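In this supplementary section we document a worked example of the pipeline. Step one takes a protein sequence of length 235 as its only input; no multiple sequence alignment statistics are reported here. Step two produces a three-dimensional model, which step three serialises into structure tokens for compact storage. The input and output of this example are shown verbatim.
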Amino acid sequence: MQAKAQRLSVIIPTYQEEKYIAKTLSKLVNTKPTIEIVIVDGGSQDDTVNIAKQFTQKVYQIQERGISRAKNRGAKQADGDILLFLDSDVYPPSNFVEKVLETFNNPTVIGATCHIMPTKSSLSEFAFFHFYNHLIQLCTKFKPHSRGEFLAVRKNEFLNVNGFDENMPCLEDHDLAYRLSKRGKFMFIRDLTVYESMRRFRKLGFFKVLGTWFTDYLFFVFRGKPLSEIWQPAR
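The serialised model returned by step three reads:
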């Protein structure tokens, strides 16, 4: 008897994303195999929710902001066997569903990430992200790390570890990847690359963003919680 085909649910937390969400969703609705798209909005005052409703019926709004809270709500509403948490300004290639499902065909795999590269980057930015991807790939062999732009998990295992820690304003993706890795394999999908906008780097400055990342990670390692008390949106 042939095993039941796994289904992928893409979960996107949003807040004031009217400039980006349509481009991302227009790519997702045309993928094969088809996927479920779940949007959880944290109180946008712009046209984000109305735009999202043009692409999927599963659009939810929460009163209290928080990226972990939004992601957990999306997971509860998702029907897929595999959950893919994606940012609203991340653009995957047309074959990403096939690549993710192929990875999770291995029953020991419970989480995965992939190459994340910038769109319209300078040479130095391109070089940094190329290095950073290789570093994340290396970390999967020791202490798995994942950025929130692209994180795929097996739903039953996600629920078993109680999802994202809603007390963490950032690094919730790294925390989840590490907790999942204690229960099975966390993989880096080497032949898959998605592309993110550089809006945060453009608004705040390249070195300021890197400094915030590094400081929050050090605080997380030594005290179990990042320094940042809130992750400021960059719009």
